[in-house]
Amino acid sequence: MSVNISIPHNFIAVEGPIGVGKTTLARKLSEVLSSDLILEEAEENPFLERFYQDPKSGALPTQLYFLFQRVRQLQDVRQSDMFSPVRVADYLMEKDRLFARSTLDQDELRLYEQVYQNLTIDAPKPDLVIYLQASVPVLLDRIKKRGRVAENPVTKEYLQTICDAYTDFFYYYDESPLLIVNASGIDLVENEADFNMLLDQIKSTTTGRNYFNPHPA
């Protein structure tokens, strides 16, 4: 149920590795802020299951599908009125390159970069990025609990690679205000106390790099 909450942001992006809860958090934020919701809709990617089963053969088509999907979505945002309702997305455009550099071989990456550059992406920048972190064992447990067949082959090693890539990326990230959240021991969707603590942090985060490391409620 929507409530009337005012925040100093027009465009919020939620990021983090597979299983950390970014889509569910984005949905909850969109609900309580009465905002537009932009999701990457991974289940629509017909190559994703193949990639998890055989990363070498499935990486390039999987990555190109996501690239085209994200470009299309963010072009729609760019062409619409950015001063209309708050928007919440469960990804950053830069995430596409992060995954490409983690999963493609050198020849594939060169081809991907050519496609990326030719799309002349001018994605709108969020005025707040929420980066959710969790340990690899926590991520594996959450992936198992949600029971998506396509994700069954996801390995500890792959998740560690992605987590390391996110850590490196956000170490240097300075394009938008950043809120780094330790989400390992809290439930930001089902536990209202946890979520309300985060919401207070979101309201107060308008510049720089910020950290939210709550104790489980």
Automatic annotation (TrEMBL):
The UniProt record lists the keyword Coiled coil: no
Keyword check for Kinase: yes
EC number: 2.7.1.-
GO molecular function: kinase activity
Keywords: Kinase, Transferase
SUPFAM superfamilies, alphabetized: P-loop containing nucleoside triphosphate hydrolases
InterPro entries per record: DCK/DGK (IPR002624), Deoxyribonucleoside_kinase (IPR050566), DNK_dom (IPR031314), P-loop_NTPase (IPR027417)
All residue ranges annotated as the Deoxynucleoside kinase domain in the record: 12-204
Enzyme class name: transferase
Protein name, UniProt field: Deoxynucleoside kinase
Organism: Kangiella aquimarina
Lineage: Bacteria, Pseudomonadati, Pseudomonadota, Gammaproteobacteria, Kangiellales
